[in-house]
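Translate sequence into structure tokens.
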Amino acid sequence: MAALKHADPAIRRKAASALSFAAFRPEGIDARFLDALIEAMQDPESGVRSGVVMILARQEGQRALDALHNGLCDENPHVRMATAMAISMRADPSSVEHLARAAEDEDESVMSSATAALEQISPGHPVARKNLAKLIRMFGRGERDRLQAAMALGAIGTDEAVAVLMEGVQDSNPFDRYFALIGLSQISNIPRLAPIVRCLRDKFEGNRTTAIRILDHCDPPELVEWIVPLLDDEGATVRMAALHVLRKREHPGAEEALQRALNSTDEREREWATAIQDSAEQEDVWAEP
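Result follows.
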């Protein structure tokens, strides 16, 4: 925590990043450090402020929430975007008014992140619905902010939003398919699963993994039949995603696959397998950072 006040901005940025990860551990960050965190929101380095908002998202109390609301007015759009994401984790109804203003931000990345957070806390909010056309255009351009647009469209989840994402799943660009899948991963009731099932054979490992996550949430009757072959996929994240799904459903082939993974020469695969073994309820232990 003392490193947040170091004279070197690079050290302060690293400290904020490390603390943001520590905040998600079960023990979290000691509430006694709240004053230091709020003070760090005035740091001249935007990278420090972006890291601090993710820590504040895990702190209880109105003071932390007020600091996050103030972060939505930060001069830096990356900080405002990170703040909107952090506020969505708090899901406090008092944030609705602040997010509604942020959802009208001129910066599209801020607008999309705030819209997604607003829809999560206040489903059907008129500002989020008003932004739907903007998000569809933003997603269609295929530029750097397409991921934020996809996540916002997934949060809104109307028939029109889902249709846009389903079309994106069939895009020729693997990264654009990935963004569409990320958006769809927030929706549990997808009307047509065939395009998602086809992504289980996608050349891009991240797309196959995300398709498994979506199908796991939708839980169709054919799920096990579709997932079993992926225990032998060439991609470690795909194999672990498949193992996670099948072990939850007590499929007989899952235990054999688990033992293979625990004895793998790939250290990362062994770590994932251990996490799956230790907690049947653990989500996303195999997901890419």
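Note: DSSP finds 18 helices and no strands in the chain.
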